[in-house]
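Priority: medium. Attachment 1 of 2:
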């Protein structure tokens, strides 16, 4: 409303913006309105992974991370939780001081050990539901999954491949 009044009093758009304490570009964006085709920050990119193959426990596992505050300012611990997708059972839950890919490896090792899957062939291991976080997409994680035989869910419309792309 103040912009309209400034324009009606004869000010050019740049002068009206300055009078209101705005940049001319901000005023242009406000007047143009939202652009529906642009994605907003934080919206998920890509299709949701297919989880329809997971019909029994230990067929698909997922990971979630929660930050826990400490008594020290700007310091937190990271609680990683490994869940069975079907039964929703918590399989492993280590705490870490950093949020790095190398923290994922002991999580999966602990989950495989807790479920008694270390002695079974790797092709029987559960698949990993990738959350598209940086830790799950890192080279270290892809190499770990390729080495252990743990992979992501089968990709539709292509031969089944794991997270490592092999």
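Attachment 2 of 2:
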């Amino acid at each position: 409303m103040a912009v309209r009044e400034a324009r009606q009093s004869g000010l050019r758009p740049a002068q009206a913006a300055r009078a209101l304490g705005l940049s001319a570009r901000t005023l242009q964006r406000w007047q143009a309105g939202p652009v529906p085709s642009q994605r907003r920050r934080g919206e998920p990119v890509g299709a949701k992974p297919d989880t329809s193959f997971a019909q029994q426990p230990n067929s698909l596992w997922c990971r979630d991370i929660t930050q826990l505050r400490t008594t020290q300012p700007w310091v937190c611990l990271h609680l990683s939780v490994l869940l069975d997708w079907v039964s929703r059972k918590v399989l492993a839950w280590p705490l870490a001081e950093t949020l790095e890919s190398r923290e994922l490896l002991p999580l999966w090792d602990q989950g495989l050990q807790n479920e008694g899957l270390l002695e079974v062939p790797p092709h029987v291991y559960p698949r990993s539901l990738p959350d598209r976080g940086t830790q799950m997409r890192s080279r270290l994680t892809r190499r770990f999954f390729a080495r252990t035989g743990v992979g992501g869910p089968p990709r539709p419309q292509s031969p089944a491949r794991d997270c490592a792309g092999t």
